[in-house]
Amino acid sequence: MRKLSAAATAVSAVVALVASAAPAGATPSAPQSASAAAATNAAAAAPFTMKNRWAREVTRYGDADTSVRDIDHVTELQYRLRWAGVYNGPVTGYFGSMTRDGVKRFQKREGLRRTGVAGHRTWAHLLHDTVRHRGQIPKICKTAGWHACYDRSMHQVTLWRSGVIRNTWLVRGGDSDTPTRTGNTRVYYRDKDHVSGLYGSPMPYSQFFDGGQALHGSGLMMDPFVGHSHGCINMYIEDARQLWNLTSNKRLYVSVYGAWD
Questions:
Q1: Which residues, in sequence order, are CB contacts of 234 under 8 Å at separation 6+?
Q2: Residue 172 contacts by C-beta under 8 Å, 6 or more apart in sequence?
C-alpha cells in the first residue's frame, strides 16, 4: 500500500487513501493538473486541528490516563490495538513498552513509519480499522446532515456527515434501570456548562436529544467499559468538547441502537 502523505495534516483524507492506495512506486496515468497540485499543497500546509477527520491527540510512551480531566487516550489506544489484533496486553491506561510494541506492529502492517508513537496518521488508520459492527449502523446515519450514532452494545459513537463517517469515540450509556433509550431523535438543547438538576453532577458540553438524556463529558468515566450513566451517553470530557466544537452550531441527529450492555 502506498504510504500516506508525510504531513500529519493530511489525516482528513486517510480513508480515501486506505481504500484506493496504489502499490508502492506506482505512477499516475496522467500528469496531475495544476489545480489539483495546488489543492494538495494547500492541504499539506494546513495545520492539524481536532476538527480533522479521525482526529486524536498524539499518544506516546510514558503517557497515562490519570484522571477524568487528564486523559491521554491510552485506554482507548490499548482497546483499539487489541481489536486490531496487534496487542494482547492488559488495558491499564499507561503507555509502556508493550503498548509501544503494539503500535509498531500496527504501523508496520499499515505501511506507516514504525515510530511507536500514535501520531495523527496512526490514529486515523486505527480508528478507521476499529469501527465495530459496521453492518449494524442504521441507514439513517448515512443520510444528509450530521448524525451521531450510538451503538449500546459496542460502547461506540460514530459521527457522520452526509454519508461520510467523520470520527468515532468510546462511550458508556445508562444502566439497566435507566438505559439510554433507543430511537432516532435530534439535539434540541445544548448547554456547555450544564449541571444535573437530579444528581448535582457536572455535565460539560451537554447536547440533549431525548428528555433528560444527553451526549456529554463525564466527571466519573475512566474506562468506557466500566460502570454506567443514568441514561446519558458519557464521553471523555475532551471527546465531548471535540464533538461540541464540530456540531454545536449544526442540526445534529442522534440514533441510539443495539442491545443494552
A1: 171, 172, 173, 216, 217, 218, 220, 221, 224
A2: 155, 218, 221, 224, 225, 226, 227, 228, 229, 233, 234
The grid coordinates of residue 232 equal 446519558
What pTM was estimated for this model as a whole? 0.83
Strands ordered across the beta sheet of 252-257: 164-170, 156-161, 146-151, 252-257, 183-186
Give, in degrees to the nearest 5, the angle at Cα 123 between 122 and 125. Answer: 65
Look at residue 83 in the predicted model and tell me its pLDDT: 98
Count of helices and strands (H, E) across the chain: 6, 9
- What domains lie within the chain, and their CATH numbers? 55-130 (1.10.101.10), 137-257 (2.40.440.10)
Whether residue 259 contacts residue 239, with contact meaning beta carbons closer than 8 Å, is answered with no
pLDDT in tens, 53-92: 999 999 999 999 999 999 999 999 999 999 999 999 999 9
C-alpha cell belonging to residue 136: 449494524
For the segment 145-154, what is each residue's pLDDT rounded down to a tens digit? 999 999 999 9
Q: Is 204 helix (H, G, I), strand (E, B) or coil?
A: strand
Q: List CB contacts of 51: < 8 A, sequence separation 6 or more.
A: 242, 245, 246
Bridge-partner residues for 168, per DSSP?
158
